[in-house]
Specification:
By secondary structure, this protein is mainly β. About 15% of the residues lie in helices and about 35% in strands.
């Protein structure tokens, strides 16, 4: 995760009373938590959930080149963060439309990916295009279709991008 991402921020003040938070181990088998020195509020830094889709057009995998950090200029499948109260599958469909200009129908879950030290958990679905025209849209420099032998493996944005592509292509 990019160090400037809000999910990796260190919070300093209690959201309930405004007093300083301190890092404290509450139970031996758990990580340190942020605890308010004044009111005892425990600030749990929960994971951030992201969702995306992998799909093909004309038999070729669709990937996007990112126009934002982290991973600016690198390739990834369409996806992004799930909004509070939003269904994960709906977020995957919404993010795909926002970034690539197409509406998709989800076919199946590929897998759920997480990495030690990263606050992001990524849910990836296999999908198919139902309408729209592929184009570089929100947060996207370029949209391209790749034959499985042409995928730019050395220029993929995240470990989850590599893992999901490998799983998606192995199901062919």
């Amino acid at each position: 995760m990019h160090p400037d991402h809000p999910s990796s921020a260190t919070f300093r003040f209690c959201p309930k009373c405004g007093a300083p938070l301190m890092s404290k181990r509450l139970k031996d088998h758990e990580p340190e938590r942020l605890v308010c020195e004044a009111c005892g509020f425990i600030f749990f830094q929960d994971p951030k959930l992201a969702a995306g889709t992998l799909f093909k057009k004309d038999g070729r995998v669709v990937l996007l080149r990112r126009a934002i950090d982290p991973g600016y200029g690198k390739w990834v499948f369409p996806g992004g963060f799930v909004d509070r109260g939003e269904r994960v599958i709906d977020a995957a469909i919404r993010e795909t439309r926002e970034e690539s200009g197409v509406d998709v129908k989800v076919e199946r879950l590929i897998d759920v990916y997480s990495s030690t030290g990263s606050p992001v958990v990524v849910v990836v679905y296999a999908a198919e295009i139902v309408r729209g025209r592929l184009h570089a849209a929100d947060e996207t420099l370029e949209v391209r279709q790749f034959d499985s032998r042409e995928i730019p493996w050395d220029n993929l944005a995240f470990p989850s991008t590599v893992q999901a592509l490998e799983a998606y292509l192995s199901d062919e």
